[in-house]
Design a protein that fits this description.
heterodimer; A: 97 residues; 3 helices; 4% strand; B: 485 residues; alpha/beta; 11-stranded mixed β-sheet; 38% helix; globular
């Protein structure tokens, strides 16, 4: 097995997903098959191969650090599920004692 | 001929000659949508008011005899992962069901400069993850040639809308084949430009190092018209290439004499349907008859492209999709007394199964202890796949093969096994990994379903693949056949 149910639970937590018991079972099986398939890449010796993270020969693209107009606050918060006085509202970050 | 089957150039001259107005043309599009979209279901959202307003303004410009844009007055469908100011943009995901963008993607600004008219947003696999448009969070789309079959994906709505005559062109996005494969399945032309040729600003990110926007059209010439308008440098996208844009339309000669074509034996090997192979070989004979030279070659790392792609694309997706947390936009789940519970509930309820599966795969590949074995390994193999193409392009002008291993499969046929579904992209994925351009052009039918010929070119050499595709198309009749709807 490339991946266990316990690892699937750990990864789901990292990915901020709640999985049902059924999903845990299915994903363990399917991810195991996909990772098994991915192990095919180990047939290749890549010790001296540079990784490609990006196909274009560009690195940092910089512009002058000048202020430019930005979007109005009332527009930006229009899509927020909950907001008040121009601020986005979220549930408590820390639990109260 | 019905107006809705006409080419871009024909519509342009009809409008200039006042055969009909832009407002009438927009109604042709909406009438056709009303007639057939109940069956095809290519659209998620229509913008009737916006399209009619724009048409009215364009008619006024026409009456003032102003210079007209290349895409003047043409009704278009836009894939629903391209943000459109004031028009709902969902990526076919429940998590963005209520998202109303406050700005336009750069390609939308360019389409407006070219004076096209968006009539609506087209259906897709959720966040562009899929090859059949069955993974839409709202409803599947159906293949106009046979409604029991999928239109391909993820730009299935865009391909089906063009094939069905609902719009004159559409935009899609291609991360692993998502423009070319549905173009092949729906019998239309689909072009994935070189990475960096078309701005990604305002394209909702799936896998940032692979995603590209491109046109879906009924002819190669139409694809050249749309590409001419959308290609070009954009300071809002730091991965946009600062290159001179050639005149793609004047590149459309039918002269392929002396052109060197490489046909990888891996692209006509095991796993490719024998009737699809026959159609591709017939197309190659046509090009040979026009004076092109054809050689069989090998792209030895092709067999590693699918696992490489799924590791890289899923890793990038797991990072890009972290932003859907119910805070700044999208749907927030009600449950959750603290922030962490709210994140988890929102994401668990909002994302569909395929999206969750890829987020899980990507998170795992990037996680501590597995990064070197999976993500880094895949990036190294990506280098080998890219080199395969570089070596071939030292000696050849284009690489040709099928776009997809089979014609469109039946609805529901492949949904149970993700690995089977991933194999649909085996012939398109290497192109994205190498960042080079490719076009799919219809090359015949198998059991009444279209087959696509894929023509792959050197980086930023869209002119040559358009020329070869056009030369082939002018010597074939497949693009003249319309689906009976």
């Amino acid at each position: 097995m490339a991946i266990s149910k316990k690892e699937v639970e750990h990864v789901a937590n990292l990915a901020r997903l709640n999985l049902t018991d059924e999903e845990k079972e299915t994903f363990t099986k399917q991810l195991d098959a996909i990772l098994e398939f991915a192990n095919k890449l180990n047939e290749l010796d890549t010790e001296y191969v540079e990784p490609t993270s990006h196909v274009l020969p560009i690195s940092n693209v910089l512009r002058e650090d000048e202020d430019r107009p930005s979007l109005p606050v009332e527009d930006v918060i229009k899509n927020a599920p909950d907001h008040e006085d121009g601020l986005i509202k979220v549930p408590a970050v820390l639990e109260s004692e | 001929m019905e107006i809705f089957h006409k080419r871009i150039e024909e519509i342009h001259s009809d409008l200039v000659n006042k055969e009909y107005s832009v407002q009438e043309l927009v109604e042709v599009s909406f009438d056709r949508i009303k007639e057939v979209d109940g069956k095809v279901k290519a659209f998620l959202t229509l913008d009737e008011e916006g399209a009619r307003d724009r048409a009215k303004k364009l008619d006024e410009e026409l009456s003032r005899n102003e210079e007209l844009g290349i895409l003047f007055g043409l009704p278009a469908g836009i894939k629903d992962n391209i943000v459109t100011e004031g028009v709902r943009t969902t990526c076919a995901s429940k998590i963005l069901a209520n998202y109303n963008p406050i700005y336009h993607a750069s390609v939308m600004k360019r389409l407006h400069a070219g004076q096209a008219i968006m009539v609506g947003k087209t259906n897709m696999d959720e966040f562009a993850m899929g090859s059949s448009t069955e993974n839409s969070g709202f409803h599947p789309t159906f293949n106009p040639w046979n409604l029991d079959h999928v239109p391909g994906g993820s730009s299935g709505g865009s391909a089906a809308a063009v094939a069905a005559g609902e719009v004159f062109f559409a935009l899609g996005s291609d991360t692993g084949g998502s423009i070319r494969q549905p173009a092949s399945y729906c019998g239309v032309v689909g072009l994935k430009p070189t990475y960096g040729l078309v701005s990604r600003f305002g394209l909702v990110a799936f896998a940032s190092s692979l995603d590209q926007i491109g046109p879906l059209t009924r002819t190669v010439e139409d694809a050249a018209y749309v590409l001419q308008v959308i290609a070009g440098h954009d300071t809002y996208d730091s991965t946009s290439a600062d290159v001179a844009i050639p005149d793609y339309i004047s590149a459309l000669t039918t002269d392929v004499k002396g052109l060197k074509i490489a046909v990888p034996n891996e692209y006509l090997g095991e796993g490719v349907d024998s009737e699809v192979k026959e159609k591709v070989k017939e197309a190659l004979k046509v090009l040979e008859g026009l004076g092109a030279a054809i050689d069989e070659v090998s792209l030895p790392h092709s067999q590693y492209a699918v696992p490489t792609y799924y590791l890289i694309a899923s890793s990038e997706a797991s990072s890009n999709l972290a932003r859907y947390d119910g805070v700044r936009y999208g749907v927030r789940a009600d449950q959750g007394s603290n922030l962490m519970d709210m994140y988890k509930e929102t994401r668990s309820q909002g994302f569909g199964e395929e999206v969750k599966r890829r987020i899980m795969l990507g998170t795992y590949s990037l996680s501590s202890g597995y990064y070197d074995a999976y993500y880094l390994k895949a990036q190294k193999v990506r280098t080998l796949i890219k080199r395969d193409f570089e070596q071939i392009f030292d000696q050849y002008d284009v690489v040709i093969g099928p776009t997809a291993p089979t014609p469109a499969f039946k609805i529901g046929e492949q949904t149970d096994d993700p690995l089977t579904m991933y194999m649909n992209d085996i012939l398109t994925i290497p192109v994205n990994l190498a960042g080079i351009p490719a076009i799919s052009v219809p090359c015949g039918f198998v059991n009444g379903l279209p087959v696509g010929l894929q023509i792959i070119g050197k980086a930023f050499d869209e002119s040559t693949i358009l020329r070869v595709a056009h030369a082939y198309e002018q010597h074939s009749d497949h693009h003249k056949v319309q689906p009976a709807l």
